Amino acid sequence: MLDDIFVDRVYLARGRADLRKSIDGLAILVKEGFNLDPFSPNLFVFCNRGRDKLKILYWDQNGFRLFYRRLERGKFQWPSDSQSTTPIKITQRQLRWLLDGLSLEQK
To answer: Which residues contact 73 (CB under 8 A, 6 or more apart)?
Structure first.
């Protein structure tokens, strides 16, 4: 799903996001809520309240890509700190773990 793109960093939005937002709404959230550039070569990952759906926003040279992932069973192991608006920076490996239903911290 994400293997064919160049990514500098991966940012997780803390807490829950309104996944009714599409590309423009999520890009505004990145710019105004996180104070980051949505046109940078970064992935911005958002999770819904039920923790069973994700959206990933990515700028691809001349347009945005929006990836959507929904689990049929189970929940994503999403960080629960919703007090801060600063996104969490994770590695691409941690993102793969998250998409596979694993915790961000592996022993």
So the answer is: none
Helix (H) or strand (E) holding 66: strand 64-70
Q: What is the CA radius of gyration of the chain?
A: 13
Dist CA 85 CA 94 (whole Å): 20
H helices of 15-82, where? Answer: 23-28
The number of distinct structural domains making up the chain is: 1
pLDDT of residue 32: 94
Answer whether residue 106 is part of any domain: no
Q: How far apart are CA 80 and CA 23, in angstroms?
A: 24
Residue 104 lies in a domain: no
63 occurs within a structural domain: yes
pLDDT at 79: 81
Residue 92 lies in a domain: yes
Per residue in 50-105, pLDDT tens? Answer: 999 999 999 998 999 999 999 999 899 888 766 677 899 999 999 999 988 888 87
Range(s) of the domain holding residue 16: 9-99
